[in-house]
Amino acid sequence: MNSWNSLWKWGGVALLAYVILRGFSTPLQPGFVQASPSRLAPGIATIALDAIGQPFATATDAHEAFTLILRSGEGLIQTELTGLTPHRVEAKVAIPATLPSPALDAFLFTPEAGTLFLGNAFFVEDAANGSLPAEVVAAPPAEQEPQLGFSFPFQPNILESVRNLLWHVPMWFAMFFVMGIGFVASLAQLRTGKVNWDHRAEAAVRTGLVFGLLGLATGSLWARWTWGAWWVSDPQLNGALVTVLLYSGYMVLRAAMVEDERAGRIAAVYNVFAFVMLVILLMVLPRYTESLHPGKDGNPGFNSYDLDNSLRAVFYPAVIGWGALCYWMYTLRLRMNRLEHHLLTR
Amino acid sequence: MNGGFQSPLRTALAVTRMEWRLEWRQGHQLAAVGLFAIASVYVAFQAADGQTASGAWTAMLWLVYLFSGFTAVGRLFDRERSATRRYLQWTVDPLGLILGKLVHAVLTTTALTALVLGAFVLFLGWPDGLDAAGHPGLLVLGAWLGGLSMTTTLVFVTAVASQVKSGGGALGAVLGLPLLLPQLILATRLTRGALDGTPFAMLGETPLFLAALSAGTSVIACILFPYIWRA
User: Fold this and answer.
1) Confidence class for position B3, pLDDT limits 50, 70, 90
2) Higher pLDDT, residue B51 or B145
């Protein structure tokens, strides 16, 4: 029993250490972030595309192994590669006078790094609307299975910030977890009236509040990076803020009362109410209203991040690790509450 | 739990009747709400100076409504004398009592909606560029539903806050304001859409959510209230 007691704590800490190391050292899969020049005109043009993440080529690679294709509407335009570096590809392209669409998407087929894509990479000015002339049309090569090793998926706009998935999401999970403990403890307290349950509820809410605040902070950072603002008006964010305010109300309520059996009962009633509101605000309402937050149709969590196997291998340990740390903090607070109670009632 | 009491519904009716009688006898309570609502609408009217976009109109409407609601419902559990309260504690079924208070909140909301909306239209008129609300029925329904979800939540919060001797009115506000945010967000969206004549399809299920929130908070209040009433 005793060995298990320290085992899960050290296990959780080890998992978190693994998550932090792996989360920050794993490279991103290559993806285009910028095209230049962004505006083109019909005629011969020199274009370049810049990528981040793992290198998609080496300086010695043969140009023939790579194919860069521009897509206009349904039509594909061929290009001739002129330069290739690990994070940049340069090409010459003959832009025809008639195009199905002035917005061009770029595809780079690579032998080992899969296919890199940039939507609306170029815009062609002064091109007539029409079909492509036959001499510029390209045939797409067969797509190669990427061989990139352990790497995180490239997502437009999210880019390197995908690593925040290992902090932000598990922190909210951990908050739900301890708030759930608090809810059950409060129910048990209302049934039995035992002060022990009250200690549990208070410790759980206090710990959950810390993780809720951390979840808000990491979410705010992520919003600044991907949406451009520290805070936006959004059902999911409103719900998160109200939840944290609600549980701050619990702490205010406790602080306003002299600690006794009656105070415990009132706090328990408020806590049950708060948890029901938490479930409604964070798990029910966001699913029925439009939200910027990922997973608005269905699960307001991380579905749309295309959690692939590499992310899963770090994300699941992160959930368990943060959960274990949170539970550990909860047990410490619980012991403090019991000691305080013991000293006061001695 | 129900031993010796009459049925909760009869108690609820009796409590509602008692609350109304209290309202009329302690006239200052009613007068305070009316005075607060009219005076703040008048301030809004003076500040707006004849120019209000529908966003500002909605914002002012709900600010006035919110604080009138606090004034009307905020003392719901504090106004009996302590002897009366002790008498009620030992003679009245808590479920019936909270039901009665909730019914009273519904009636209060109805009166408040008429008062605040009426005062807004009378003093401020309609927002710029509007001769009337796009959906007048929806405006009234939205204001009533928003107010209902607000007052039902407040009934529960003030019930909790009234149990804390040192807290009093301030504690009710501290606990109540964050709880009312989601209701107010839904309600402002609905009333603004009703003013601008937004197509019904774009307003979605907002009225349903408001109704569901009111029903949900009422049910939770009924379940939990017996635990604090004789704490």
Assistant:
1) low
2) B145
Give the residue with greater pLDDT, A169 vs A301: A169
CB of B179 less than 8 A from some CB of A: yes
pLDDT tens digit sequence for A331-341? 999 999 999 99
Question: Does the pLDDT value for residue B38 go beyond 60?
Answer: yes
Tens digits of residue pLDDT in A121-155: 999 988 888 888 888 888 888 877 888 888 888 88
> Is A238's CB within 8 Å of B231's CB?
no
CA distances, B123 to each of A163, B42, B46, B109 (Å) = 55, 7, 9, 21
Give the helix/strand (H/E) hosting A78.
strand A75-78
Per the CB < 8 A criterion, the answer to whether B65 and B143 are in contact is yes
In a domain, B164, yes or no: yes
**What tokens appear for A54 in the block?**
């793992």
Domain count, chain B: 1
- Contact B166/A at CB under 8 A: yes
The amino acid occupying position B79 is: R
Cβ atoms < 10 Å from Cβ of A138? 17
- Residue A307's pLDDT band, with cuts at 50, 70 and 90, is low
Name the residue of chain B whose CA is nearest to A284's CA. Answer: B209
Q: What is the pTM assigned to this prediction?
A: 0.84
Instruction: Give the residue from B155, B160, B165, B175 with the most A CB atoms within 10 Å of its CB, the best one to mutate.
Output: B175
Q: Is residue B184 part of a domain?
A: yes
| Nearest beta carbon to residue A190 from set B163, B185, B227 | B227
- Residue B2 falls within a domain, yes or no? no
* Predicted complex ipTM: 0.84
Radius of gyration of chain B (CA): 18
Q: Which residue has the tokens 């019936």?
A: B96
Q: Which of A233, A277, A290, A297 to mutate to test the interface with B (most CBs of B within 10 A)?
A: A277
State both tokens at B94.
Answer: 């808590």
- The answer to whether position B27 is within a domain reads yes
Q: Domain residues for B169? A: 8-229
Structure tokens that stand for A51 in this block: 């990528």
